Fold these 3 entries.
Entry 1:
Amino acid sequence: MPPGAWQTEWVRDYKVIVDAQMPVLDELQLLPRTTGALESVLFHTIKPSILGRAKAFGNLARTNRLMDLMVLHANGQLNSVAKISEQLRADAIAGGGYAPQVRTIADPRMYRSLTDASQLDQLLRDAGLV
């Protein structure tokens, strides 16, 4: 690809989408217009949380749930110890006084659903994203 060609491709493929989003950004005023805020969350929250463990992740559903928890944490929705304790207590009561089993979502031996593209497609379909 010749130098400068990516700019032409970007304008052709994405400019219409970006232009359509600008009125929404102008109206809300609170949304960041750069990736700086996202990069900060990735660097300060997610990276330290998975550092040293990322290569061990293999199960797509469990990894997805971990990322959901990180999103909740980044949005300040896991800051109430009382609410978290209340939910854990309710789960234990529903389980006859016991916490749910740790590995209720498991892959068959040696299979890593996280690296299986068809599993990702299914996860997206189940979530209604495709």
Entry 2:
Amino acid sequence: MKRALLLAALAASLLSAATPKKPKLVVAIIIDQFRYDYLTRFRGDFTAGFDRLLRHGALFTNAKYIHFPTVTAIGHSTFLSGGTPSITGIVGNDWYDRQENKAVTSVSDSDTKLVGGGNDPGASPHRLLVSTLGDELKMSDGGKSRVIGISLKDRAAILPAGHMANAAYWFDLKSGNFVSSTYYFQELPGWVSDFNAGRSADKFMGVKWLNHTLPTERKAYFGNNTESPFEASPYGNEVMEQFVERAIAAEQLGKRDVTDILTVSYSSNDKVGHDYGTFSPEEREVTIATDKLLERLFQALDRQVGLDNVLVVLTGDHGVSLSAQEAQANRMPGGRYPGSTVKNVIQGALAARYGEGQWVAGSWDLSIFLNRKLIADHHLDPVEVRRAAAEAAYTVDHLARVYTWDQLVSGAVPGDEMSRRVMNGFNVRRSADLNFMPEPYWLVTNSTTSHGTTYSYDAHVPVIFLGPGIVPGHYDDSVTVNDIAPTLATILEVETPSGSIGRVLTEMFAK
């Protein structure tokens, strides 16, 4: 009996030694559109935050996303849930909701209102079907922990933070304010209103970066969700960093007897990448600027909380392809055609075959939603219509694969990695009628470049942990971004988020 007790005590001691101590604050950072090779290509330019992470952190060099499409909302929903779209229900940035009979975004919620901006509808995580790390943490301690998400984009602030978050804040281009939603509270906290009153973003009007001068007229400067000179510059991240530092101090994060979580998403990198390209001087400039902002964040954390009490994890929400011009310049295969090309071909083919009507209900990225009501009204077999739509799509040059809803629901797809990732992205209630994959480096977009495929350049991103109990170094085995959430849950000694399919990255734990 004594021997058994001794063995049990020894096992408990070894387990305790192997798992890092609970931090006071988890800072979960995601950089929008951040390929892994940005760390290696710009390594010589890093003197600040990235340099700290690469010298003192645990870098996983072969981390991939294992879902389709590789877009912002899905990457952010994966980050701290560990799930894939098949489980989380977040199947894109936007999709056609068949129950609501309208186009929706990943966080749109007509039952909420914007707080701090205009009278527009708000947003919430109600479309996310699973828990996040923050949800599990708050359930474990009766809601004592504080969980806050911050980004320029609503989906990037809301989805990592989860259902029980105390707040999510994002930047509203109409008002020039950081805003939130009635899902969280009816009025902005005083510190947020004070920050907005300082009009931090306005200070960069007319400022020059590289060969670009930002507009001096507010409407042109802030732009819209598609084109925003402010957000498509390093200064979008700069203003968000100021807001993050204010939040750490005002919310007293990491200063109580429980663990708090702060999620931070840098969005300007994505806007710059889409506008200027993967190998552009602008991409290098925004990456170097992010290096400096990360160090400012770490210094603020050290002042406020002490870095010995902080666990940092950093990743990207997706990568990005070469632009068509970059592919051509490097004699790589590739090119581009407008984002509406496949949609228009399918619409024309179905109209010619079945009669006039709006056969395509919506299309986003690499997904096509058919008008199921029109199909039913014409008493057509939906399987046949989807097959006809796929046949039409294949007439478009440079499409590698087309997957129909019927193939995915039955699993009748090739058994390769591409198909496995498309299956991981398939949710039976929400996913599109057709998903298509262009050939490598072929872009279906109106932007300079884009992302969304299962190819390595879209799926390969950094994963870096930094903090007490984490053994620094390069870890070259293949891992997935889905591994982050269960790893953090193990460190915090809380239940693994409900949809997680990842493993615990014990190889970086101090023994």
Entry 3:
Amino acid sequence: MESRNQPSIVIVDDDPIQRHLLALFAERLSLGALIVTSGQEALEVLDNNPGQFRLVLMDVRMDEIDGLECTRQIRLRERGTGQRIPIIAVTACAMKGDREMCIDAGMDDYLSKPFSLAQLDSLIDLWVGRREPEPPKRVIIQESH
């Protein structure tokens, strides 16, 4: 059971403006969010908190471990566990073939920037189900070490 004070989604984006926008969207949708700035941080958070999160919003283009590689590693770690966290690509990559590239890496869906709150809400609803209206949850921004 999810605690009201615990984040329910992980937002992975290395751009401070996009992190801020996604944090605002999460707040508006009454979703608790943990925001990390790299694929490596996302892997650490998911490894250290198995089963805590319901969804990952993943930027594709990041330094070191990009969103595609991070997703591949998450899927490898899930093998044999019976668990699969939905991962939605949130990216400025909107060229032909980019959606397929994300899906091939193991992402479940794709949202091209810029996007609206309604578009994000619709995708979250598709992957984690309708949420009951409730007071806003905490958004936690985890700074890089």
